[in-house]
Design a protein that fits this description.
about 550 residues, Four Helix Bundle (Hemerythrin (Met), subunit A), four-stranded antiparallel β-sheet, globular
């Protein structure tokens, strides 16, 4: 599997464009290193880059960029709104694809060691990379900032993890580690810096100290002034957006601002954001306002609007949503991305891939998308108004499944390719070949079985839809049911043919029973749904 990590360095230079570009271009000299985002702030005097690539590529790019920054940045002359401790202030590594957090921790440590030994500078570990509880958070390490570093380095408890316990005036120190995705999220307020900071202390986890914690877990925050925009910001870092979503931070800041009679004029996300963070916001506003929005693009638009992400600066979906950037820069197109004519031609060729499993996935996706069409046609008009709440409940899951099922075109194709690869590979040890063949076969069996499980979860929604649908869409739902039923049987046939070659009797028997139950259930549901539709036709 392809391995991708992010490197999100925070350099203490936000004003000299030439220096910023030189550092950026130095990293990009390493083949395979891709720039996903660059964000510089004049007031903060800081630039945050987001680079992506394989671990080997990123580690080399990180070291090259840091070496050049050592020559170009002089911390003894640095003044900015953002807290900082060094030229390469914070250097997080983030796993994205094919890399575990544990592996990423080791990559961060490798970089920290190389940075310290190459530049002879102090390096502190943080986050998951640190085993010191009293200094595993950036604010803890950065307390007192650059100006206090010289004295801090003399304290035994603050001996760097790597490099000398010696003050390097032009560099300061660097904080290196591995973390989950952090979202820098700022709320714009027409206020003073002090008022913004008051709200920041209210919402951040640390609050005003140990005895006065703030409202939101996993949130760091402070208030600052953006002189160039003549406004203040409640600047936050959301450390775990799964636990504390963006909308919660925004709504709390909005609430406190209203209580203080202050005007909030939207917000901004700095750099790259995972699409799920925005979809979580959309889900909140959809549920709160009782909206009916299904497609991803509209959900993203809703999140952008409700958070006011376009108020001061435009939010660039193409360049700021992680998955969109990776799709454009790194992701390789699969069979599901082919033009339909080309896909059909390939299926009809002598190539065994894509085969029956991939076709079953395509059929399932088409059946699901046709069901979505029926659902949408069965609500939203005066005659069908009574259906609105019911369709709202059942349609979102069906809608999302149409795209998830499409992914199985490539999952099934890759699983079968793995079986072919094992069969063609030469092995010195026959026992090793037997183990790898069994593993590949079981995986090739699990993929269509998993697809059948997902389809099976849709039947209850189709039963409900068959009783309330728009009469004009009866034939469409009939086709949909037949397609989903055919797909499940396609999955069954692929499971059974792979089980013939599996040697693990326990796995074989268990899987055979499960796929038989799924196909029998499909028979029963198809009969019920088609029966409901036949009754409607006879009325």
């Amino acid at each position: 599997m392809e391995k991708i990590i992010l490197w999100v360095p925070n350099f203490s230079e936000g004003r000299n464009k030439q220096v910023i570009e030189q550092i950026q271009n130095e990293a990009l000299k390493i083949p395979g290193c891709i720039l996903l985002d660059s964000n510089s702030g004049y007031s903060t005097h800081r630039t945050i880059f987001t680079f992506a690539g394989s671990p080997v590529v990123i580690l080399e790019a990180a070291l090259r960029a840091s070496k050049l920054a050592f020559e170009l940045i002089d911390m003894s002359q640095h003044v900015g709104e953002h807290p900082r401790i060094g030229a390469l202030d914070v250097s997080p590594f983030i796993p994205v694809k094919g890399v575990t957090l544990e592996e990423c921790v080791e990559y961060s440590k490798t970089f920290g060691q190389r940075l310290a030994s190459t530049l002879d500078v102090p390096v502190y570990l943080y986050g998951r990379s640190s085993d010191k509880e009293y200094r595993n958070k950036v604010p803890q390490i950065r307390e007192g900032e650059y100006e206090s570093l010289k004295g801090k380095l003399l304290v035994t408890d603050w001996k760097p993890d790597y490099g000398p316990a010696r003050f390097v005036p032009t560099w300061g120190a660097s904080i290196v580690g591995c973390r989950d995705f952090l979202i820098p999220f700022n709320v714009n307020v027409l206020s003073t810096k002090e008022q913004a900071h008051t709200i920041a202390m209210n919402i951040r986890e640390s609050g005003r100290g140990i005895n006065l914690p703030g409202k939101l877990k996993h949130v760091q925050a402070l208030g600052w002034m953006l002189e160039e925009d003549n406004m203040a910001q409640i600047s936050t870092n959301i450390l775990d957006f799964h636990s504390t979503p963006i909308y919660q931070v925004y709504e709390e800041a909005l609430k406190d601002s209203k209580e203080m009679k202050l005007a909030v004029i939207g917000s901004e996300i700095i750099g790259i954001v995972p699409i799920q963070a925005l979809l979580d916001c959309a889900k909140y506003y959809i549920e709160t306002e009782d909206l009916m929005i299904l497609d991803e693009e509209s959900k993203i638009k809703l999140a952008i609007d409700r958070l006011g992400l376009n108020t001061v600066k435009p939010f660039d979906r193409k360049n700021q949503i992680l998955e969109y950037k990776l799709r454009e820069k790194i992701s390789k197109p699969g069979y599901k991305d082919m033009k339909i004519n080309d896909f059909i031609a390939l299926v009809g060729s002598r190539s065994p891939v894509p085969g029956g499993g991939a076709v079953s996935a395509l059929v399932a996706s088409l059946g699901t998308s046709l069901t979505c069409m029926v659902g949408l046609l069965s609500q939203g008009t005066r005659k069908l108004e009574a259906n609105n709440s019911t369709v709202k409940k059942i349609l979102p899951a069906i809608y999302e499944n149409q795209f998830e099922l499409l992914d199985y075109i490539d999952k099934d194709s890759q699983a079968f390719k793995n079986v072919l690869a094992v069969n063609r590979r030469e092995y010195k040890d026959s026992a090793e070949k037997s183990r790898e063949k069994e593993s590949a076969l079981q995986n090739a069996t699990e993929v269509p079985l998993e697809l059948a499980r997902k389809i099976s979860k849709l039947w209850d929604g189709l039963i409900v839809l068959s009783t309330i649908l728009n009469p004009q869409a009866i034939s469409d739902l009939q086709v949909s049911v037949r397609l989903l039923h055919a797909s499940i049987y396609g999955c069954k046939y692929n499971v059974l043919i792979n089980l013939k070659s599996c040697q693990d009797a326990t796995f074989t028997n268990k899987t055979r029973v499960e796929i038989s139950e799924i196909s029998s259930l499909a028979d029963d549901y198809m009969e019920k749904i088609l029966g409901n539709l036949e009754e409607k036709l006879s009325i």
